[in-house]
Design brief:
Layout lengths: L3 H35 L2 H6 L7 E5 L2 E7 L7 E11 L11 E8 L2 E9 L4 E8 L6 E7 L6 E5 L5 H6 L2
Antiparallel strand pairs: 1-2, 2-3, 3-6, 4-5, 4-7, 5-6, 7-8
Length: 164
């Protein structure tokens, strides 16, 4: 039996289902983006880095870059890089490779970082520990594609947050 009100009821149900589907799709889109929100540079800068460095995300990895902060002028200084997953679990660096490029003013220097046991890479480069120091790190874990991260390891935290 088709009455004018039964057609209206079907129309309301279709509209309600369409609205629910649109809402569900929007919600799924938001949740699919949540991981990228959770690990932006401002969030990572708010974390206490285990070795006193700066943490950045590179693909599925968290990288902590530690540069020597004492002294002045460009001279050979140590560089350390620690690798963990998003949960903080150490990722073995055996068989992996890493490089760092340091930029400060007009100066540019690159260094190869070598696996140094556990989840650590070490190397050395001639650099001045200044607040404008920037670093680009590339890490290739065994069987994986290279991942890159950018650091401002000596910039004051307030300046880092303001520049984002």
């Amino acid at each position: 039996m088709n009455t004018p009100t039964s057609g209206l009821s079907k129309q309301r149900r279709r509209h309600g289902m369409a609205s629910a589907l649109i809402g569900f799709s929007a919600l799924m889109g938001l949740t699919a983006q949540a991981p990228s929100w959770a690990h932006d540079d401002a969030y990572l800068d708010s974390l206490q880095a285990p070795h006193g460095g700066q943490i950045r995300m590179a693909g599925t990895l968290h990288l902590e870059l530690v540069v020597h902060k004492d002294g002045s002028g460009a001279k050979p200084r140590p560089i350390e890089l620690y690798v963990t997953d998003h949960a903080g679990t150490k990722q073995a660096t055996a068989g992996a490779s890493a490089t760092v490029t340091l930029l400060s003013g007009k100066s540019k220097v690159s260094a190869t970082l070598k696996p140094a046991g556990d989840n650590k890479f070490t190397g050395q480069a001639s650099y001045a520990p200044t607040p404008d120091l920037k670093a680009i790190v590339s890490v290739t874990m065994p069987g994986e594609d290279a991942q890159q991260a950018r650091f401002t390891p000596l910039a004051p935290r307030a300046a880092q947050a303001a520049s984002r």
